Amino acid sequence: MKTSWRSSPWVTRAILFWPTLVFGLISTRYLTNPVQSAAAVGISVVSPPGLTILRVGFGAFPLACFLFALYCLISTSRILTGLNFAATVMSAALVVRVAGMLADGTSAQNMRLVIAEVVMLALMLLGVAFETSRRRRPGTGTAS
Fold first, then answer.
1. Residue 14 lies in a domain
2. Please, what is the Cα angle at 28 between 65 and 39, to 5 degrees?
3. Which of 40, 58, 120, 134 measures 20 to 30 Å from 12, CA to CA?
4. 142, part of any domain
5. CA geometry: angle at 55 spanning 100 and 66, to 5°?
6. 136 confidence band (pLDDT: 50, 70, 90)
């Protein structure tokens, strides 16, 4: 049993890896080719200030999330922080998406993303429970 708890930081790292990757991919898409990426989902940019706002809102914020999640991924003592952060971001995105679906009548178009976000949120919460349980076990520690 002790061996499985020793490997648990790697399991929770694997869970935290996925939202870290998603944050990185979103930011890369909107920082490298913002006009085409926005157009692919029906957003048009008609002015240079609009393009800058697109880069900041869709590129910089996910980039900051990526960098923070990556920072947390590096050390065993910060994995729980990263999992909680990712679960918070995923929860907010899910609530806003569902509210938007209801307000805009876009349920059919968004259902695939809702399912993916629910699965990712469930994984984050499982990781939080797993990491919290590991930390409560004697001798497992939280040092890097």
1. yes
2. 115
3. 58
4. no
5. 80
6. confident
pLDDT at 86: 97
| 79, 12 Cβ separation under 8 angstroms | yes
The residue behind tokens 């800058």 is 52
- Name the domain count of the chain: 1
- SS3 of 74, please? helix
- Look up the pTM and report it: 0.85
Check residue 3 and give its pLDDT.
47
Give domain status of residue 7, yes or no: yes
Q: Which domain covers residue 20, as residue numbers? A: 2-136
Give the DSSP letter of residue 132. H
CA gap 17, 61 in Å, rounded = 18
Average of pLDDT values for 30-55?
Answer: 92
Length of the chain: 144
Q: Which sign, positive or negative, has the C-alpha torsion 29, 30, 35, 37?
A: positive
**Structure token digits, residue 142:** 């939280």
Neighbour count for residue 21 (Cβ, 10 Å): 13
Q: Evaluate whether 27 touches 62 at the Cβ level (below 8 Å).
A: yes
Nearest-angstrom CA–CA distance, 86 and 71: 12
